[in-house]
Amino acid sequence: MNKITEIFKDKKTLIVYLTAGDPSLDKTKEYILTIAKNGAGLIEIGIPFSDPIAEGETIQNAMLRALSKNINLDDIFNMVLEVRKKSNIALTFMTYLNPLLSYGYDKFFKKCHETRISGVIIPDMPFEEQSEIKKFSDRYGITIITLIAPTSKERINILAKQAKGFIYLVSSLGVTGVRSKITTNIDTIVLEIKKITETPIAVGFGIATAEQAKEITKYADGVIIGSAVVKIIEEYKENAASKLAEYVSKIKKAITIN
Amino acid sequence: MSKGKFGIHGGQYVPETLMNAINELDVSYNHFKNDEQFNKELTFLLNEYAGRPSRLYYAENAANKLGGAKIYLKREDLNHTGSHKINNVLGQILLAKKIGKKRVIAETGAGQHGVATATAAALLDMECEIFMGEEDTKRQALNVFRMQLLGAKVYPVTSGTKTLKDAVSETMREWSKRSDDTFYVLGSVMGPHPYPQIVRDFQSVISKEIKEQLFEKEGMLPSVVIACVGGGSNSIGAFYSFIDNKEVKLIGCEAAGKGIDTFETAATIAKGRLGIFHGMKSYFCQTESGQIAPVYSISAGLDYPGIGPEHAYLHDTKRAQYVSVTDDEAVEAFEFLSKTEGIIPAIESAHAMYYAMKIAPKMKKNEIIVVCVSGRGDKDVAMIAKYKGKKV
């Protein structure tokens, strides 16, 4: 079984996103450990990019804050190495193609392997452009996470068939960001995907409250929370650990009772 | 698999949310580009509404003053709305109408593409929303009001550097929120496939006309075609019909800003390297760690950190040559053309004119340079006055 798929075994999984370097890499390390300890099954680490076209304002601003600290990919890998001294939590990166192209695909995936990063989520790389990196991600056994959107329609079949690790099902149209209501027929899409593949499905984009998380995990295998966590970090900066612990354990509890 | 490649450049690097929208666009464009009725309507609009064909004017005073080659100006500045942008916009909005879209959205830098889009949307009765960097809304306040007058809503974009690249990102984000009834009218030969092809096809009317008009006047092909390059829509339009005529030199003029050795530049071919951004693989001005670099040019229309993928390919294959022209040089050409020919060019087009001034004296009398005057300079007059330290 794929190592990411394992974390979905027999339970609903909470996936949490945060941006590397916001407010500092030391704090990112601390927050990853806090989030892991309080019930996240997988943590998605954002590698900042200046112009993230699939992100709403919250994550855009977090990435710009991180970039203002002049951090680079080597610094981020070093931070992950520090995390690895204390935790075996499953980790993926979320980023855009240009910083990876610039760093070198082979070097990037080699370092992912060395730091036990399991997968990558790249919003500006649709299925049709996977050949851009696939040779390298395959070489080092790193999973490319497949995204499926409410607009995917007839594409769902081909996307779901090749998906490994987990499927990132985008709950809503548009970009990332907290939404008060998820209006798309996400339950129907989950059922449709489940007919095609056994790869677990986690739903992300716009999810912030325990009620939303609970509702979504009635049919999906996991829930992804990004902007809501980034907002806590934005508000409490260096002192966000206790707030993060409280928030993450609340969501975890809500999806566990299901 | 990967579509719309020009050598290694191009492609469709967009979020999954937009994949069906660009695929739908690809299918419908391929249908309508060969549709007789569609082409008939488009030609009617281009001729009767936009004022095509645009003149190919022999700039005799300029040629005499410079000595050397004959200089012809392709007068895209005489089109309705004052630039080449209308060629593409009429094509795209007519297509939007044919496929049942109700609303068009577009990015704009200086406002030329925004004004053209708002104009065509008014004509063809479409809702229109324009995204413009907050910085640019201040620098080009008159164009904001012009778009509003034409019935468009203008949204100032406050993310990132608050200029053209951010306006493109924000329009893509808006399109991913609402694509079922909305058509994204992209203004240059950039973005994900099929945009670089669509915009090139609609702009290629420029070189098609140059070829016919020059043949009629001189019975020959030009020696050199020169055009300015930001994203690259007027230049690809001016080059396209000559690509197979290898004896015609094609020269694209990038904005060097304060010089390619400074950080205040927008010369992508000179300073950029391979990257992936705004849906395409091409050359981009970027930092060592692959962040998109802030760029600068006196000309808002050339103030973009990338270049269209077909230009990147023409550069790789050496079919076209890309040179950089500074702010100072462009202003020199702006004044030269105004004084010698009574034609005030857009500051963008002045970049191309400068290079013609540079090479014409070294060429033979029987050789011909065609310069694409992509737009008129009224929008730039106040800024040039400021640049010269004059109060207006």
Distance from N terminus to C terminus of chain B (CA atoms, Å) equals 55 Å
Q: What is the H-and-E element order of chain B?
A: EEHHEHEHEHEHHEHEHHEHEHEEHEHHEH
CATH class of chain A: Alpha Beta
Shape of chain B: globular
CATH level-4 homologous superfamily of chain A: Aldolase class I
Quaternary organisation: heterodimer
Radius of gyration of chain A: 17 Å
Looking across the biggest beta sheet of chain A, what order are the strands in?
Answer: 5-4-3-2-1-9-8-7-6
Descriptive notes:
The complex is a heterodimer of chains A (258) and B (392). Chain A is of the alpha/beta class. Helix content of chain A is 45%, strand content 14%. Chain A has a single domain, classed as Aldolase class I (TIM Barrel), CATH 3.20.20.70. Chain A has a nine-stranded parallel β-sheet. In chain A, β6, α8 and β7 form a beta-alpha-beta unit. Chain A starts with a helix and ends with a helix. With 392 residues, chain B is an alpha/beta fold. In chain B, 43% of the residues lie in helices and 19% in strands. Chain B has 16 helices and 14 strands. In chain B, a hairpin with a 1-residue loop joins β11 and β12. Chain B is globular. The termini of chain B are far apart. The mean pLDDT of chain B is 96. The chains are: A alpha/beta (258), B alpha/beta (392). At the A-B interface, α3 and α5 of A face β2, α1, α8 and β11 of B.
Layout of helices and strands:
The complex is a heterodimer of chains A (about 260) and B (about 400).
Chain A: H1 3-6, E1 13-19, H2 25-37, E2 42-46, H3 57-67, H4 73-84, E3 90-94, H5 97-103, H6 105-114, E4 119-121, H7 134-139, E5 143-144, E6 146-148, H8 156-162, E7 167-170, H9 186-196, E8 201-204, H10 210-216, E9 222-225, H11 227-236, H12 241-257
Parallel strand pairs in A: 1-2, 1-9, 2-3, 3-4, 4-5, 6-7, 7-8, 8-9
Helix pairs in contact in A: 2-4, 2-12, 10-12
Chain B: E1 5-6, E2 9-13, H1 16-32, H2 36-49, E3 56-58, H3 60-66, E4 70-75, H4 85-98, E5 103-108, H5 112-123, E6 127-133, H6 134-139, H7 141-149, E7 153-157, H8 164-177, E8 182-184, H9 195-203, H10 205-218, E9 224-228, H11 233-239, E10 249-257, H12 268-271, E11 273-277, E12 279-284, H13 309-316, E13 320-326, H14 327-341, H15 347-359, E14 368-373, H16 381-387
Parallel strand pairs in B: 4-14, 5-6, 5-8, 6-7, 9-10, 9-14, 10-13
Antiparallel strand pairs in B: 1-2, 2-12, 3-4, 11-12
